[in-house]
Design goal:
heterodimer; A: alpha+beta; Uridine Diphospho-n-acetylenolpyruvylglucosamine Reductase, domain 3; Enolase-like, domain 1; B: alpha+beta; Ubiquitin-like (UB roll); 2 domains; five-stranded mixed beta sheet; 5 strands; 32% helix; globular
């Protein structure tokens, strides 16, 4: 986008709504006579409006209750939809369960984006280069939302694309147990970015690799492990596992930054390194 | 659509009527004549328009005025007291941490926010924090020097 095509002077007038409850917000969206959008942090909305996109109604979610907490809920951790990236990175609850996630998130984008941007906005932007979706998919999280019919529902993060613009995310439920390790690799953006987890399932440990930046859309690959990933005497090498995880993924993009083959090879190398690192450091959790 | 908002800017309470599509940058620059808030990229990237909203750095060009209702805003104009520069401004001056000066107010406001949350930042912390601001003529070493100098002078609060 050329700078000349983007300006705050191109933002068209709109009606502002500041609902006090999620039900009010969804009702306002459904009742809009024109085009409507929710606004959490508003980063992507503002960027879209500066290109001249017209909206009749902006529904600001700042006054909605219970959207900014990160709480343990049974075995799970529920991240409120309005939690900012900064709050996520600083959360003691999250740091206990997902230490590498909190560490990576403290370096996401820059301080202004971390302070303003919200987790739900990151998910709803529908941009493969936005990183929370790959984390949620790797962690096997559920997205909780309110539909336009005012019913509370949830969907696996890997099915995020099924959410429509009228659906209002209320929280993200991350499994608080069963995750042996979760790492997020963002240092090679925009070439590649991925989240890798090892989760204890019913039939043993499952490795889940979710990729975002460098691909046309977010994709998931998972492999059941015959041996413990933490067993250094396992005949399954980190290289074998990285190969098995990367093979089913769709071809990465070719653009001016990097070719598809380069991206695929880089991804394999980075995944292998993370697996080796996980083997050295051991599981995150006591379980 | 117009909305009424109450906001405290550099310690002064203001009651304003603004359009819903008005940004904080235009509110400050055009309604309050606080032109130290610069607008360059108009895309929340360069950091020139950085102001502090409730003590936290924010891009004025990418924040709607209605979002700051009830908030405290600090701009570069609010730093000096009785014609005496703030320690961060003085540090930038002494280390020659600017040439054209267009980005400087944004950098100084970012440094102020940093020294509030971390009064003795490491070089890595300073670099990580200031990656939200772009300078295209001075180079970053003198800005790093200025931040170190300001941190030493302001000191760690008791």
């Amino acid at each position: 986008m050329l700078v000349a095509q983007r300006s705050r002077h191109r933002i068209h007038p709109f009606h502002l709504h500041r609902p006090q409850t999620a039900v009010d917000a969804v009702t306002l969206h459904a009742g809009s006579k024109g085009t409507a959008a929710y606004m959490g942090g508003g980063i992507d909305l503002m960027a879209a409006l500066k290109t001249g996109r017209r909206l009749d109604d902006v529904i600001h979610l700042g006054a909605l209750p219970n959207r900014t907490g990160i709480n343990e809920c049974g075995d799970d951790i529920v991240v409120g939809a309005g939690v900012t990236h900064d709050a996520l990175a600083r959360s003691a609850v999250l740091r206990r369960a997902y230490p590498r996630l909190a560490e990576s998130w403290a370096k996401l984008a820059n301080n202004r984006i971390r302070i303003k941007g919200t987790i739900a906005g990151n998910l709803m932007a529908g941009n493969a280069s936005y990183d929370f979706l790959i984390v949620a998919i790797a962690a096997d999280a559920q997205i909780e939302f309110m539909t336009s019919r005012l019913s509370a529902e949830s969907v696996a993060a890997s099915r995020r694309a099924e959410l429509g613009p009228a659906d209002l995310i209320t929280g993200i439920r991350l499994p608080g147990s069963g995750c042996l390790a979760l790492v997020v690799q963002l240092e090679w953006k925009p070439i590649v970015a991925f989240a890798l987890s090892f989760r204890r399932g019913q039939d043993g440990v499952v490795a889940r690799l979710a990729v975002g930046a460098g691909f046309a859309s977010v994709a998931l690959s998972q492999v059941g492990l015959k041996h413990s990933v933490f067993d250094s005497s396992s005949p399954e090498t980190a290289s074998d596992l990285a190969e098995a995880l990367c093979a089913p993924l769709p071809p990465p993009l070719t653009d001016w930054r990097a070719g598809s083959d380069y991206r695929r090879n880089l991804l394999k190398v980075l995944v292998r390194r993370e697996i080796e690192q996980i083997r050295l450091t051991g599981p995150n959790h006591a379980d | 659509m117009q909305i009424e908002l109450a906001v405290t800017v550099n310690g002064q309470q203001k009651r304003l009527s603004v359009a819903t599509n008005r940004t904080v940058a235009d509110l400050l620059r055009e309604d309050l004549n606080l032109t130290g808030c610069r607008v360059a990229c108009d895309g929340e990237v360069c950091g020139s328009c950085t102001v502090l909203i409730d003590g936290l750095p924010a891009a004025a060009c990418a924040t709607f005025a209605f979002e700051v209702d009830g908030s405290f805003i600090e701009t570069i104009e609010g730093l000096a007291e009785n014609d005496v520069l703030h320690a961060i401004q003085q540090a930038f001056l002494e280390t020659n941490a600017f040439q054209c000066g267009f980005c400087t107010s944004g950098f100084i406001m970012s440094v102020k926010a940093l020294l509030t949350v971390d009064p003795a930042p490491t070089d890595d912390t300073i670099r990580e924090w200031l990656k939200s601001n772009i300078c295209r003529c001075t180079g970053y070493q003198t800005i790093l020097d200025a931040t170190r100098l300001a941190a030493r002078r302001i000191g760690i609060p008791a």
